[in-house]
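Our consortium's second objective concerns turning raw sequence data into structural hypotheses that experimental partners can test. To show how far this objective has progressed, the report includes one record in full. It was chosen at random from the queue rather than selected for favorable results. The single chain below, 608 residues long, was entered without modification.
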Amino acid sequence: MRKKIILLCCIGLLYGVAYGQGKLVDSMIAWTIAHPAIDSQHLLTLHRISYRLSEKDVKKSFEYYEKVSALSDSVNFIYGKALAQINLGILLSNSANYHASNSAYFKAIDYAEACGSLRLKSVSLNNIGDNLKVLHDYEKSRKYTQEAIQINSQLKAWRGVAINYELLHECDLQEKLYPAAREDLVKGMPYALLSNDSYVLSIFYLGFGKLHAVNGHNDSAIFYFNKAIEQARQQDDLRNVQQVFLAQAEYLSNISSNKKIALLDSALQLATQTSFTQGIADVAQELASVWEEKKNNDSSLHFYRIYRKAADSLFSENNKRNVIIKESEWMIKRKELENTHLMELSQLQHQDLTIKNILLLVVFISLIFAIVIAFFIYKTSTAKKKRSEASLKQKIAEVQMQVLRTQMNPHFIFNSLNSIENFMMQNEKWLASDYLNKFTRLIRSILDSSFNELIPVAKDMESLQLYIDLQQLRFNNKFTYRTCITPSILTGDYKVPSLIIQPFVENAIEHGIAHSEKTDCFVAVSAELQNGFLLYTIEDNGIGRKQAAAYNFNNKRHHKSVGLTITADRVHIFNGSEKDAGDIVITDLHTPDNQPAGTRVQVKIKLL
């Protein structure tokens, strides 16, 4: 249930900026009184009041749901109708009326599709999956959760994607499909890290802890359980901490009954502290079982009574909520009947309308028809625009994935391994060890950087230095490497895409230096701040582009390099500029007698 509320809160970010997420319910009510005009903001505020009251005051929450539903119908605000149905679904789910709750969510999906709100559709699909999981219909739960993943991925709503994968994990875990449960967590973990949300990370670490415990790896399980507690405490989320203690008692094997009791006592204390009735019931039931195994009937009976009291309280609360909802539904139906009678009376009164009124009606219908046509044209134009935007985003994603795949050049890896082999064959074990050590550090650095869109400049330069060291060993120190980086860039909070200039350095070495017969070859890299950009300069004194092209034509005629093209695309996408914006400038260097003297490349990266 908490996941549903949290997902719905994410929607609140779309419209909650104007009045603040931390506003109290009475402040929002006061605002609706001060702004009685029935517009989209008024309806959205009523919706926020309804879902904030959904776990505290069901009757008032239902009243505000009814207002949102009725007013949205009156002004045909389809987005508001979708929100109202989501609120109703949450209320019904809180009262354990899961089938009725799903009916409300399906209506919300219809409205969300009608108004083009993929966010509301993904929330409804996830909540349907959550209800089906409670009803043990795991296959259908997975089906709707997978649909939510597709939408959230399209929206780049990484937090939603992470929560979706965690729901799939719970389904697999309850069916004891442990390999599948682990696969779900592994798939979802990158999105959990992208969301950088303590709650999401906590439930993922809890899932990993359970799976390690199931496999008998207690040390690893305890490590992840502690990580889950650490993340939960960052937001003072005591309920999640309580869930971790309960999971340790349930899943850890070969722990003493006293240790299990200590964990359960801690969980019970937290559940009581947070008034978490369901948690009290779950923990008390476990404690009763443990004390029964220890043949301590008095303690077992004590905790069984606590369990029964909590379970009865939950049953009573659910019944109370259902009664409130049924009463409210009856009131709505009664109002609908009254409205029906009024409509019938109105129809009788209008039977004597004159020809003039009929003509007026024809004009009105024509006006409505014109509005429908205009609306259809608008929707068609909007849909075309969205398709264009989606195509652009897809292209960006494809370019980014190509970059990740080309960050480690297979030829470079092959050459590095050959160099290591050569050192070993020549009995130069120290050089082979040094090369292998640096090669391993570079691989690790590149893999670590691939999980982050941006990395500090200092860390990127460290990776570049490792790459240069390997190339110097490979080419037997044929060239020297010089750097001139403004100190404030290395110490400041400047970040760039990982290995953004490495392909230019590689190009300088492989095509400029490698074929040169000079004895004083060098590659120089400098960086400075310039008009809101970080300006990199990569310079070499190799054979130049013209001779390199001639060499490749004669010796590598079928070789096609796309590394620099992809890197250029990365720079333009990151800067948000066109291809001819001057982000990358390549200059051929010449001696005074016009002989090739190397190449200079200047790359501008936008400062964030």
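The partners drew two points from this record. The two ends are 38 Å apart (CA to CA). Residues 1-22 have pLDDT under 50 and may be disordered. Both points have been shared with the crystallography group to help prioritize constructs.
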